[in-house]
Amino acid sequence: MSEEEYFILLSCLIESISFFSNTSGVYSAFQKKWDPRAVKPFLLKPIELVLNSKENEIFNSNSMELIPKIDADILYLDPPYNERQYASNYHILETIARYDNPVIKGVTGMRDYSSQKSSFCNKNTALKSLNDIAKNAKYKYLLLSYNTEGIMSQKNIAEILNNYGAVELVEFEYLRFKSNNKGKSKTKKYIQEQLYIVKKY
Ligand SMILES: C[S@@+](CC[C@H](N)C(=O)[O-])C[C@H]1O[C@@H](n2cnc3c(N)ncnc32)[C@H](O)[C@@H]1O
Question: What's the pTM?
Answer without folding.
Answer: 0.89
